[in-house]
TrEMBL record:
InterPro entries tied to this protein: Brnchd-chn_aa_trnsp_permease
TM spans (from-to): 6-26, 38-56, 62-83, 95-114, 126-150, 162-194, 200-218
Keywords, alphabetical: Cell membrane, Membrane, Transmembrane, Transmembrane helix, Transport
Compartment annotation: Cell membrane
Organism of derivation: Alcaligenes faecalis
A Pfam family recorded for this sequence: AzlC
GO terms under cellular component: plasma membrane
Coiled coil: none
Family listed: Belongs to the AzlC family.
Biological-process GO terms, alphabetical: L-valine transmembrane transport
UniProt name for this protein: AzlC family ABC transporter permease
Length: 228
C-alpha cells in the first residue's frame, strides 16, 4: 500500500488541479453548492461531470444526460475487463467498491506495474491498488469541494481548464516509453481531434477505442518481429 501511495505522488498535482477545475465548473454551470457536493461525491468522474454540466444547464432530458455520461465513461468497461483477473476472487460488493473509486490514472499506474504479471489476484496487487485509489479519491474530493467553495473567487481569466490539461500532460507523457504507447497516443490524439464535432463526446469514445486497438496492434507486431 505504501508503494502504491509513493507511485501515486506524481499524479497528485494533476488530480488536485482537475478536481478543483471540476468543482468550479459545477457551480459556474448553475448547480447549487449542495447539488455540486452531491455530484462530486456520488458521480466521481471528471469527464462525465464536465460532459453533463452543459446538458444540465440547457435543461436537456434526463435520459440524454445519463446517456452522454455513459458514453464518455464507456472506456471503464475496457479498464474493468483488464483489471478483472486481478480482483475476480473478491466478492461483488468489494469489486463494486473498487470500481467506484477507480480512475484513469489509477488504471495506468497499476497496469504499468503489474500488467505483465504472470500471477494475478495476490494480496500484493490489492494493497498496491488501494495505495493508489484511496489517496486519489481523497485528493479529488478535497480539491473538488475546495473548487465548489471558492468558485465565486475564481475569475474566468485564470483559464483553469488549460492548467488542468497541462498537469495531465506532464503526468502522461513520461509514461509513453515504447512503440505501443506511442502508437496509442498518436492514434488517440488524431481521432480525438478529428472527432471534436461528433455529438455526446463520441469523439472521445472513438479515441479511446482507436488508441487501445493501435497499442495492441503495435505490441503484437513488435512481438512478431522479436520472434522472427
Amino acid at each position: 500500500m505504501r508503494a502504491g501511495f509513493i507511485d501515486f505522488i506524481p499524479a497528485l498535482i494533476a488530480t488536485v488541479v482537475w478536481g478543483f477545475v471540476t468543482g468550479v465548473a459545477m457551480v459556474k454551470s448553475g448547480l447549487s453548492g449542495f447539488e455540486a457536493t452531491l455530484m462530486t461525491l456520488f458521480v466521481y468522474a471528471g469527464s462525465a461531470q464536465l460532459t453533463a454540466l452543459p446538458l444540465i444547464e440547457s435543461h436537456a432530458p434526463l435520459w440524454l444526460i445519463f446517456t452522454a455520461g455513459f458514453i464518455v465513461n464507456i472506456r471503464f468497461i475496457i479498464f474493468g475487463a483488464a483489471l478483472q483477473p486481478f480482483f475476480r476472487h473478491l466478492s461483488w460488493k468489494k469489486r463494486l467498491g473498487l470500481g467506484y473509486i477507480t480512475s484513469d490514472m489509477v488504471f495506468v499506474l497499476f497496469m504499468s506495474k503489474y500488467g505483465d504479471a504472470k500471477e494475478r489476484g495476490s494480496r500484493e496487487h490489492l494493497w498496491y491498488y488501494l495505495g493508489i485509489i484511496l489517496p486519489g479519491w481523497l485528493s479529488w474530493q478535497i480539491a473538488s469541494l475546495s473548487g465548489i467553495v471558492l468558485s465565486a473567487y475564481v475569475p474566468p481569466s485564470w483559464s483553469l481548464e488549460f492548467a488542468a490539461i497541462l498537469a495531465l500532460l506532464a503526468l502522461l507523457i513520461p509514461l509513453v516509453n515504447n512503440r505501443a504507447m506511442w502508437a496509442c497516443l498518436i492514434t488517440a490524439s488524431v481521432i480525438a481531434w478529428v472527432g471534436q464535432a461528433l455529438p455526446l463526446r463520441l469523439g472521445l469514445v472513438a479515441a479511446v477505442l482507436g488508441g487501445v486497438l493501435a497499442g495492441v496492434a503495435a505490441e503484437q507486431l513488435q512481438r512478431h518481429r522479436d520472434a522472427r
